[in-house]
Amino acid sequence: MAEIIYPRMAVIGCGLIGSSIIHAARAAGVVGQVTVADASAQSRERIEALGFADLVTADPAEAARDADLVVFAVPVMAMGEAARAAASAMKPGATITDVGSVKAVVSEALSEAVPDSVFVVPGHPIAGTEQSGPDAGFAELFQNRWIILTPQAREDDPYLEAVQRLADFWTALGSNVERMDEKHHDLVLAVTSHLPHLIAYNIVGTAADLEGVTQGEVMKYSAGGFRDFTRIAASDPTMWRDVFLANREAVLEILGRFTEDLQALSRAIRWAEGDKLFELFSRTREIRRGIIAAGQESAEPNFGRDHRSADPDTKPQ
Amino acid sequence: MAEIIYPRMAVIGCGLIGSSIIHAARAAGVVGQVTVADASAQSRERIEALGFADLVTADPAEAARDADLVVFAVPVMAMGEAARAAASAMKPGATITDVGSVKAVVSEALSEAVPDSVFVVPGHPIAGTEQSGPDAGFAELFQNRWIILTPQAREDDPYLEAVQRLADFWTALGSNVERMDEKHHDLVLAVTSHLPHLIAYNIVGTAADLEGVTQGEVMKYSAGGFRDFTRIAASDPTMWRDVFLANREAVLEILGRFTEDLQALSRAIRWAEGDKLFELFSRTREIRRGIIAAGQESAEPNFGRDHRSADPDTKPQ
Ligand SMILES: NC(=O)c1ccc[n+]([C@@H]2O[C@H](COP(=O)([O-])OP(=O)(O)OC[C@H]3O[C@@H](n4cnc5c(N)ncnc54)[C@H](OP(=O)(O)O)[C@@H]3O)[C@@H](O)[C@H]2O)c1
Ligand SMILES: NC(=O)c1ccc[n+]([C@@H]2O[C@H](COP(=O)([O-])OP(=O)(O)OC[C@H]3O[C@@H](n4cnc5c(N)ncnc54)[C@H](OP(=O)(O)O)[C@@H]3O)[C@@H](O)[C@H]2O)c1
């Protein structure tokens, strides 16, 4: 058992990510008491029943009182309001973090909401499943996954110590810690996560609206590739609405590039330019090899996923 | 052990699909002798070493001689040439089939190439992995997967019997048999397979060409959703070039719809229309539930895939 890093941890919003943090932190032995605030009465009931928290409340301030670490794990656009609700109870010297999938907007919202006496260190674990809610959480979710911290531009020792303590916390949970500028985070994630989700939502929506092909046929023959998109496109609607609203500029920029490239590809098909198609398809194959080499994937047909293994930022059923 | 359905089976093009058919047919006990023709010297060497064929040759005619079933499992645009090369040796009354991912073009090419005395029954198994070549094949690939047969428009008894015999063969291999008009097949698969592949190739290509984000970052944070696209975009370049050339019209039609929808989605993001996003994201979630209910997927995070389980039409590494 490791040493306790945070004697008291508060989790505000205890769904998939919030509850997974609690399970993982308890398994690692790095927290003492754990308090939870959740807006949903149904979730609170489940959290009580699951018994992994020492205090369950609807009031963020009650949960945050005396906490050494406060983790905001609500949808991105709800972060500001949740932080304002908890602010008055925050202990001077406490660390305030979050797990939101967009960082610039959240970082600003948190910083504005909380007193100067606490340390704001935003973060984003690149791990998730398609499930949501407190029943979906599990301790292994963050194992071997990246956690990106986007600390503020300050260099004073107490702040740097707070950042280091949070990095140690995530390391204890099994994650690999990376520090990054928040704007850069939002651009990188627009590419690796937000655009893929947008495209998946779109293609599944398009397929649903076709006249010539029935929904039954789409489902029946989904093993042809479509199936993978439906998994991504089953991600939590609230979470993803918020992501696109909060990371609008970067998403639209990357989407513009994607659309340009798609037009070129469409032209190549129209004019039967087989060589162009072959060249692109060969190039993309190499990228896959790179990802397998980077350890983010295995070459096995089961996709390197075992039951409950940590999965993409987002995989609802 | 079942009864032998085809005393002699020839497989022309013995990669992933061709070799899987041989493994599955032998396991089911529905074939006697098996002959193989493959254009690649390297593949022929591997096939000899693997020892699953009674005859291995470069010459399609030699393999097809005296065969009761001839299965063409080469890339879609190579079907016509392969069939012409084998035609002279075909036994009257033999069944000629294929496994190509596009049906109208292949059906026409096969029919033109072969003598009137044989029965042409095109087919497409909706099963595959991202691997290719004869080493990638395995007997369970077609278990519980659909095989779509697109018989010709003829109603004479000998032909209908040949179709039924081929359906029985695939049933013995573990597949569920469906009959469909070839044009309709090409439209359905444009939606469930060809467009998803095109989109995946495109997004991976776009990501590779960005200035602000390095390839290393794309790989590192690919678990955010991008990873799933890279798997699809690692599919065999030759096979997929041929699919897009052979199914141009249907692919461009569906791509047009996809692009329209994407523009509307882009506008909704630009104008921060959260309700529109939420509505679409909720709708697509239902489709996922339909696919799980249709038995084409499981709700488990491992995606219902166990080691070597049959996978989407296409999943190269
Ligand atoms: N899912 C992923 O794969 C993933 C990965 C990395 C990061 N993230 C980020 O993690 C955060 C949480 O995602 P999640 O997947 O854990 O979602 P989730 O399972 O839906 O959990 C969110 C929880 O927060 C509650 N909540 C919503 N607004 C609240 C508020 N104002 N105050 C208190 N509680 C509130 C929700 O209650 P209700 O049910 O009443 O709404 C729900 O119980 C999001 O910011 C997301 O961007 C998610
Ligand atoms: N992969 C899938 O997921 C999947 C699923 C359903 C249907 N299909 C269809 O199945 C067919 C084969 O795909 P596959 O995945 O099995 O490909 P594969 O593993 O690459 O095998 C194709 C084999 O055919 C050989 N070949 C190519 N042209 C030939 C010719 N003219 N004569 C004789 N042999 C030739 C290739 O040799 P070289 O190596 O020298 O080219 C290779 O050994 C394609 O029509 C594809 O559309 C594929």
From TrEMBL, chains A, B:
GO terms for biological process: tyrosine biosynthetic process. Its EC number is 1.3.1.12. Keywords: Amino-acid biosynthesis, Aromatic amino acid biosynthesis, NAD, Oxidoreductase, Tyrosine biosynthesis. Pathway: Amino-acid biosynthesis; L-tyrosine biosynthesis; (4-hydroxyphenyl)pyruvate from prephenate (NAD(+) route): step 1/1. It catalyses: prephenate + NAD(+) = 3-(4-hydroxyphenyl)pyruvate + CO2 + NADH. The keyword Amino-acid biosynthesis applies. GO terms for molecular function: NAD+ binding; prephenate dehydrogenase (NAD+) activity; prephenate dehydrogenase (NADP+) activity. Residues 303-317 have a biased composition (Basic and acidic residues). It holds the Pfam family PDH_C. It is an enzyme of class 1 (oxidoreductase). Residues 7-299 form the Prephenate/arogenate dehydrogenase domain. SUPFAM superfamilies: 6-phosphogluconate dehydrogenase C-terminal domain-like, NAD(P)-binding Rossmann-fold domains. Residues 296-317 are annotated as: Disordered. InterPro entries: 6-PGluconate_DH-like_C_sf (IPR008927), NAD(P)-bd_dom_sf (IPR036291), PDH_C (IPR046825), PDH_N (IPR046826), Preph/Arog_dehydrog (IPR050812), Prephen_DH (IPR003099). Signal peptide: none annotated. Belongs to the prephenate/arogenate dehydrogenase family. This is prephenate dehydrogenase.
